[in-house]
Amino acid sequence: MEINVFDFRPAGYAYLLEKFALAGMPNWHSSLVSTTGTHYSKIQDGFVEEVFRAQYWPGEKVGNHLEFALKYDGVNLGLLALIFEKVSQDELTGFIKSKPTGKYARRIWFFYEFLTGKQLPVDDLTSGNYVDALEAKDYYTVQKGEKSSRHRIVNNLLGPKSFCPVVRRTEKLARLDSSDLRKRCEDIVTAYPPELIRRALSYLYNKETKSSFEIERIKPNASRTEKFITSLTLAEKEDFCEKARLIELQNRIVDPRFKDSDYRESQNYVGQTVAYQKEIIHFICPKPDDLQSLMEGLIDSHKRMTTGNVSPVIHAATIAYGFVFLHPFEDGNGRIHRFLIHNILSLQ
């Protein structure tokens, strides 16, 4: 469907990004307000473009568009962090004070102070019901998050500001939740004799080890293979998602020449050589200077999800893929991220 730009105005995140001339990762949901016509949505490649009727127009104030964004576009901490760098503190403070008990105003206030580390000149709330930072019906959240009495907000986010995944409860993930994977695993394990399970487990340890190295196009010697298998056997007993254990794991599985004693100190990237001195860059990893904070955040997020009773599949996916995107070591990141999936699922 072709859209006449003169009949539609961006709202929510789209309005704010345009207003402040910001570029960010596309949000899954974008909003437009029509000067005429009806309300409708179109979905393409997982992205939703929703057109609202004219009466939904929030006006020209930043606070109103932030409220519109949280209400209709969802919570996107990355975009909020960019917007908060540009928004006037006075304007934001005025908006929050004009709606002191409004749940969206309180969330905006909470997210601003959570993401920026700055405190707005707004008095602590002394009354009113607590509301969750994220709606549990729409997002995966930790249970019994800590209460911020200042904002009357329950912080049920999956991590600290340095690494805070936000995972929506989509229809596909809802089907996964209802499939009861734990019960299905238990049924398989209890249906066969223990000796057969042990033999199958030994085979799977060897197969996973072989596959994990093959993905990296590495041919390990017998010693490195044995060390990786040993690590897999410990996956259901020990938590490897802490700095010392991750370094220990990296040292076990890489060539001795590439062992690290800390997170990497050089910039790396994921790419491929296409010709002499010509590379295609697929992904540039975070700067070494940022790694300590990012990895501390990832490990804190892991602990938070462990105690917060988050779905094991969501927990494993966010931590493992977060790890591989951070790429904290010179070598072994891919194998460690696959190991973390086994580790977290086994422990949960």
Write a concise synopsis of the structure shown.
The chain is α/β, with parallel strands linked by helices. It is built from 13 helices and nine strands.
Written account of the structure:
The protein is an alpha/beta fold. The protein folds into two domains: 5-87, no CATH class; 177-347, Fido-like domain (Fic-like fold). Helix content is 48%, strand content 12%. It has a four-stranded mixed beta sheet with strand order 1-2-4-3. Helix 4 packs antiparallel against helix 5. The chain is globular, with a radius of gyration of 24 Å. The model has no long low-confidence stretch (mean pLDDT 90).
Order of helices and strands: EHEEEHHHHEEEHHHHHEEHHH
**Domains (count):** 2
- Spatial order of the strands forming the largest sheet: 1-2-4-3
Gap from first CA to last CA = 46 Å
The total of beta strands comes to 9
Per CATH, the class of the largest domain reads: Mainly Alpha
Indicate the low-confidence ranges by residue numbers. none
List the total number of helices.
13
Q: β content, as a range?
A: 5-15%
- Classify the oligomer: single chain
- What would you call the shape? globular
Q: Approximately how much helix is present in the residues?
A: 40-55%
> Class by helix and strand content?
alpha/beta
- CATH fold-type name of the largest domain: Fic-like fold
> Radius of gyration, Cα only, in angstroms?
24 Å
Q: Largest beta sheet, briefly?
A: 4 strands, mixed
Mean pLDDT across all amino acids? 90
